[in-house]
Amino acid sequence: MRNLFSVTIICLSFLILGVFWSLSNNLQHVAARLGQNLVVTLFLNKDLPGKDIGLVRDKAGRSPIVESLRIVTAEEAMERFQASFPDLKDVLDNLKVNPFPASIEAFLQAEKARPEAVAAFIQSMIETPGVEDVEYNRDWVEKVRSLGRLARAVGLFLGGILILASFFIISNVIKLNVLSRKNEIEILRLVGGTNAFIRIPFLLEGTVLGILGSLVSLLLLLALIKIFPVYLGSSLGALQELLNFRYLSFSQGLGLVAAGAAIGWMGSLTSVSKFLKA
Amino acid sequence: MLVSDNLIELFHVWHQYQRPNWALSDISLRIKKGDFVFLTGPSGSGKTTLLKIIFREIIPTEGQIVIEGVNILRIPDHGIYRLRRMIGIVFQDFRLLFHRPVYENVALPLQVLGVPYKEIRRRVFNALRMVNLQHKLGDPPSHLSYGEQQRVAIARAIVNAPKILLADEPTGNLDTELAFEIINLFKEINKQGTTVIIGTHDKELIRHFGSKILFLQAGKLLGKDALPLSGN
After folding, report:
1. Cα(A107)–Cα(B21) distance, rounded to whole angstroms?
2. Would the pTM of this model clear 0.90, i.e. be above it?
3. Partner residue opposite A277 with nearest CB, options B77, B97, B160
4. Phi-psi region for residue B125, left (φ > 0), alpha (ψ -120 to 50) or beta?
5. DSSP state, A146?
6. Between A and B, how many residue pairs show a Cβ–Cβ distance under 8 A?
7. Which residues of B touch A183 (CB under 8 A)?
């Protein structure tokens, strides 16, 4: 019963850590994906003639940091939007006219796209006739990245507090187990048992509790990750990509289990040692 | 190093559980290898305290104890097992594991030594046969009579063929016939080289087996004539 209690506490602590960690994992992943294709989008004036579109494209193409260009027509822009936000299809249908401007996407060469160079490029493109607005996705990459860091920090903070708590709980549970076997420990010492001989069963017990707790938390996390998207449905739209969980990598999972084992080990070590004097 | 046949030496040992009474006052004695000693005296005279001091369950208020040339008060806590492994102890309150079968209780001193399983079985069985309990091997001590529990405690103390056997009232709950049998058993073990110290207030036993006698009264050692302090 006591053991069940401590496994539950360890499990919950690690679950909280795991939830934030997997959120952060996802945000890092999204940021990395966004970071791979740095795109400056040049939104063009509405109804810009094809000849002028060609001029803007040629100017952008001359910049040394641009790797390739793609023209996105107003129709393509609308299709993309409909694909991303199927719920909003009705709204668009009611509009009758296509509200999206055509644009040119300039894919940058990652190694040459230093911030100053990109800023200069953006500046020169804004001044180009026919360009209505310029958007650069690196700002987003940075935002997503720092969101990821925030999630991890929150997870470490909350998880850390709970893990500290579970350390004390394990330590006390083992202490109760030790107390209930005080007689046995005493006898073992009197017949010549070494401290290690007496300690090892308790250490193993604590370690197993820690491992069990963290393993169960990983299972719960997996279940949560499977269920959460189903529960949310598509109500979050594009935000869902950011709010999604990415399951912990094998080494992260291993790290959590190792941390569980270590906490169990140390928790019991502190409580048994008190009974091994004289 | 001085070669000596003294196994246990106590130098001016005093012990106090609470002021102002001294449980032991100024005990000095020497016990040689192979001795068979009765430690006697009325209840409360300090027999149990003296025995507990020898295996360092109690640290005396003052004085020194040397066993096999080692001052046992200087052994660190984590090294105390070395002392305990050469001493077999029959406790007055038995200190058995009541929920574990007799076999496991007796096997404990061998298990902590890492003796192989087959050897443990052989030696436990022998020890139980010596105290005539081989048929109760699988019973937990809680199912045994008081006297039987005492014999389990004796089996556990001798199973390891210790250098020193300390027994605190080992015949206290046995009828005379069985008590004599047990002391004969201790004599037998003593012949194989184990130094035996028996705390008892049973005068008849001492009369019958009388060898060296340490007589305690109110914490003081009397009757030193029975056990020459000089060692010769």
Report:
1. 95
2. no
3. B77
4. alpha
5. H
6. 52
7. 95, 97
Which residue, among A201, A194, A212, has the nearest Cα to A263 in the 3D structure? Answer: A212
| CB contact A276 to B (< 8 Å) | yes
* Distance separating alpha carbons of residues B191 and B33, to the nearest angstrom: 11
pLDDT tens readout for residues B149-177: 989 999 999 999 999 999 999 988 778 88
Residues A66/A52, Cβ–Cβ less than 8 Å: no
CA distance A9 to B185: 55
In this structure, what token pair is assigned to residue A89? 């299809």
A23, A155 Cβ separation under 8 angstroms: yes
| CATH class given for the domain over A38-136 | alpha beta
| Distance separating alpha carbons of residues B48 and B78, to the nearest angstrom | 24
Give A192's DSSP letter.
Answer: T
Residue recorded with tokens 């939830």: A19
CB nearest A192 (choices: B96, B97, B112): B112
Q: Strand, helix or coil at B175?
A: coil
Strand blocks (E) in A95-218 = 103-108, 131-136
SS (H, E, C) A94-133: HHCCCCCCCEEEEEECCCCCCHHHHHHHHHHHHCCCCEEE
List where CATH 3.30.70.3040 sits in chain A.
38-136
Residues of chain A contacting B166 with CB distance shorter than 8 Å: none
Query: Which residues between 165 and 224 in chain A have a beta carbon less than 8 angstroms from any beta carbon of chain B?
Result: 183-184, 186-195, 197
- Say whether A188 and B109 touch across the interface (CB within 8 A): no
Which tokens belong to B61? 């208020």
Q: Identify whether the C-beta of residue B109 lies closer than 8 Å to the C-beta of residue A192.
A: yes
Taking the Cβ of residue A278 and every Cβ of chain B, the question of whether any pair is shorter than 8 Å is answered with yes
- Establish if B156 touches chain A: CB-CB under 8 angstroms: yes
Are the beta carbons of A278 and B56 separated by less than 8 Å? yes
| Predicted complex ipTM | 0.85
SS3 state at B219 = coil
The per-residue pLDDT for range A162-203, each reduced to its tens digit, is: 778 777 877 787 788 788 888 888 899 999 999 889 889 889
Within 10 Å of residue A143's Cβ, how many Cβ atoms? 14
Give whole-number Cα distances, B171 to A23, A55, A122, B26, B149, in Å. Answer: 71, 114, 102, 28, 11
